[in-house]
Amino acid sequence: MFLQCGRFKLSLERPLIMGVVNVTPDSFSDGGHHFDAGRAIEHARRLIEEGADVLDIGGESTRPGAAAVDLAEEGRRVLPVLEALAGGKVPVSVDTRKPELMREAIAVGADMVNDVGALAAPGALAAVAASPAAVCLMHMRGEPGTMQANPSYRDVVREVRGYLSGRVAEAERAGISRDRIVADPGFGFGKNLEHNLELLRSFPELGALGVALLAGLSRKAMLGKITGREVGDRVHASIAAALIAVQNGAHIVRVHDVAPTRDALAVWRAVAGEKK
Ligand code: HH2
Hints:
Bound molecules: 6-hydroxymethylpterin-diphosphate
Number of strands: 10
Shape: globular
Radius of gyration: 17 Å
Order of helices and strands: EEEHEHEHEHEHEHEHHEH
Number of helices: 9
Structural class: alpha/beta
Distance between the termini: 12 Å
């Protein structure tokens, strides 16, 4: 299995690490740390050295309760960073919900679009379909402003899988081939701790979608609830979560802490066998 990702054809025979670069003042775990292009680019290059297989550049926080950012501001944040990194040795992804920014990002060389809105915004499917970029379709219940208010599901795994299956079908109808699609259950996006744990436990069931799977658990509130630790102190919990996700079938893990994740996955690969 492989993922066609802009200029890259990525093998999914071993788990891939997507390193997070937030160019925002307010992201939940690293807001403000790389809130200028120079620092963000420096951080991204460090993540590549640490072993990131893909970089995910975002200019709008989607943490619960986050304020929306307008198109011009989001573009000012991410486009210079994408431009500096595109064409390098690892693919770059743009984390955005805005179709206009998807187009602009692809025009400056983004290899992938990571959309927590699963290309549901008008024009988003067409923006990706018209390009060679890969796309990550994520499940979210509600909107970041209110999604954690009181999420409820009858059967979270069925509902998330059903939604993703519908979005994959829509994307295919729009002309995005399966080998360009990644699906993600969206941990923490309109889900309480029990929902998140159930999704992680049942991750293998998402394999039926027949596309690459991504898990984003890094430093999230669910890990704080389990360990009682503040966001800056969740690295160990994040490694455990990434490892469980990979063991349960995730092809890509989206993480802030690339170096320790790489080491943990190296051990997993050694045990799983050389092919990984
Ligand atoms: N999580 C976040 C943002 N984007 N994209 C995908 N596909 N999956 C995720 O789980 C996911 C995501 C939230 O993390 P972060 O980017 O660190 O925070 P913020 O949204 O506050 O910038």
